[in-house]
Amino acid sequence: MEFILGNFGSGKTHYVRQKAVELISKQESVLIIVPSRRHKDQLLTDILKTQKGIIGNPVQTLGEFQNRLIEELFPIPSTRPVSLSNFEKFLIISSICGELPLKAFHGINQRPELMKMVYRLVQSIREKDIEHLQSIPELQDKISDIQLILDKYQDILKKQNISDPKSIADIINRNLPSLNPDFLADNIFADGFVDFTATQYKLLHSISEFAIANNKNISVSLSTISEETITQFQTDFPNAKHIITEHTEKARESGQFSN
Fold first, then answer.
1. Which of 21, 86, 126, 189 has the fewest CB atoms inside 10 Å of its own CB, making it the most exposed?
2. In what order do the strands lie in the sheet with 187-190?
3. How many CB atoms lie within 10 A of CB 168?
4. pLDDT for residue 135
5. In the chain, which residues have pLDDT < 70?
6. For residue 220, what are the β-bridge partners?
């Protein structure tokens, strides 16, 4: 395993792209996991400029990869955990805000920007397994409102047997030992993440352990501003190799890197 460390613009993605192209040209299997569709499209476009006739899908968002894992682990559709898109989850939380007798956030479902803030906050709290929020007198109305929204949201997910990202990650982790190692590419990269949510880290950590145990190569690019995440990765994978990307544009063009 290797960590690719560097600031924004230091060349982490260039390093990943260059290495991926070299491996693909040697007919080796490659998978690059990225955080968004925009990252995927850009990276795939750059790879196709130098490497024609790519077989398969070498660049996938983390969500796409997670869905493929679920399909592989649960080949019978009726046995797969049910999940929601971010938009569907946003609609549920927005609807809850319109129904509950909120104080500080009364009418917030009519204010999209504030609604997005509450949605992200509720999702973050749920990912971190926080059941009850701490009481802070100065923020009591806001905390009470968020607690009401969180409780109602969790109740809806439970009644409809819906798995959120945290639950999906847990399900994958429990069933990962049964995964056929050939499902994974021989060379796996995670690139473009500024930082990882608790759920993303849990999933990537499990995949990394599984890949290493099955003699796969895995590389994770990390921004040097994410000190806590870097420390966590280094603690969990103390034997990982470090690649430092600190080159200039000129060095980037010539492929020179600091190792």
1. 86
2. 59-61, 30-34, 187-190, 217-223, 2-6, 241-244
3. 20
4. 75
5. 52-55, 129, 165, 246-259
6. 3, 190
pLDDT at site 133: 83
Where does 160-215 have alpha helices with state H? 165-175, 198-213
Q: Which CATH architecture has domain 2-78+169-254?
A: 3-Layer(aba) Sandwich (3.40)
In 5-111, which ranges are continuous DSSP H helix?
A: 12-25, 37-50, 62-73, 86-99
User: Can you give the pLDDT at residue 152?
Assistant: 94
> What's 225's DSSP letter?
T
The two tokens of residue 99 are 């129904």
Q: Tell me how far apart the alpha carbons of residues 188 and 231 are, in angstroms, rounded to a whole number.
A: 21
Encode pLDDT of 133-162 as tens digits.
887 787 889 999 999 999 999 899 888 878
The strand ranges marked E within 46-148 are: 59-61
Question: What Å distances lie between residue 214 and 52, 57, 79, 180, 186, CA to CA?
Answer: 29, 21, 27, 10, 9
* Distance (Å, whole) CA 13 – CA 239: 22
